[in-house]
Amino acid sequence: MKLKRDKFRNYFRKNFVLLLVLALITGSLGACGSKDDWRSREVTVIDDNYRTWYEIFVYSFCDSDGDQVGDLQGVISKLDYIADMGFNGIWLMPIMPAASYHKYDVKDYLEIDPEYGTMEDFEELAAECDKRGIKLIIDLVLNHTSSEHFWFTEACDYLESLGADEEPSAEDCPYYEYYNFVKGNPNSDVWYQVGSSDYYYEGMFWSGMPDVNFESQGLRREFEAVMDFWLEKGAGGFRLDAVKEFYSGATSKNVEVLTWVNDYVKAADPDAYMVGEAWEGLGTYAQYYASGIDSFFDFEFAGPTGVVTKTLTFSGETNSAQAYAKALSRVQNAIREYREDAIDAPFFVNHDMARAAGYMQYDERKVKMAAPLNILMSGSAFVYYGEEIGMTGSGKDENKRAPMYWSADASAEGMTRGPLDMEPQENQFACAEEQMKAEDSIYSFYKDTILLRNQNPEIARGTVARLEEVEDQDIAAISKTYDGKTIYLLYNISETDEKQVTMSAEQYGELDIAGYLSVDGGAVTMKDGVVTMPSYSVAVLRPAES
Ligand code: CA
Hints:
seven-stranded parallel beta sheet, 18 strands, binds calcium ion
């Protein structure tokens, strides 16, 4: 025993310096750990429709069978990637058989496009999403079908078979009613001739996508069966395409169609989630909430001239952080005017828009900062695949739908070739594989942003109010109140380091920093009610007791 103790004593003496160094390292790790403390806070996931969604273009996402076209099994293989980022919702762009690569021209509403896999693959995907707490919604294109859909081809064959004096009748061909046909040339560039007949059909987008006629009750019954079918297969709801074109230019008629869709789907599944694409200004798309549909995409904040881009890249008071905070209230108030429980659907870009990194001239700090400006908004937030790594893509539509940049090696497992008419894309930021390893990558920043959102349920669900007493133009200061709790979000949207914001205990009660983001990795600190923020940073403050 004694010998052993002496040995230990000698060992201790010999290695004193080593032990001291070890102790110092452990201590400094502890200090680093405090920087990361907020990340270890509990995540409070509520199983409702205020989610963080990932939009996937299956074609370009992940290939499972080596043909370089993405497929459903490829999506399944990346579910852990998606869940690990903190997403708890997925929107799949159209997956039904279609003539085009993008598949917004549906040939059969009750099948999976063979390029993407089988119905069994879809059911497996739905089950795997379910295991991970991910709600799966699919694109539902009701405005038009493919010109190859049998409803349309039968209707056309029927019209062409009519004699010169014969009037068409839905009794002879029910599909005739499903579309907008007229006799005689309307001389409009959205109307197309049926063969060599006197009949013309409407195609708002192109000749391959004839618009349907919602006056037809037969058509509505068909679509009801389609909605039932997919809910039954495991879809948790729908993203509704091009809803403003149901009756182009007639908002109240479009709202009527959507009211029918909403009533039907919610009767079948009260938990289903639906989000509509009404690509209009706020004043118009807000009106669509009267339909009862949960969400409509927030075009006010999106794209190259939306609030987020303006805040980060335009100058002047109207594009300041203050203006950003005001816009949050403006959108909230506009949509609640039409429905008190409206769920905003913020997004930055989608498959129809150039990718966001280009709006920021590939300035990495701004590309990062755009994430919280979108994802920390109230409502259901949407992220287009590849935005989390700052992918490139602008110009023609195909370029906006480029292969997910998993690996720098284009022939690596899972890599897709992208749409055939895509121009070669050169990404400015590293591939996902590399960014996942780097703590200071765009990917890691997105992941932290979503984590912050998931830790604080008030962020997605809270009612926003601007803190008018914070007058600094570079600071957006808001409160979010949900379920009787109020938290505060401060955004330093400027190059200025060490910005100070006073959040006095007298006014706001004792607050703690619940978490923060900063593009350069510097810490947000708080002392005696004064919050000090690095350039381009966000802080979440919670009452000290909660
Ligand atoms: Ca494939």
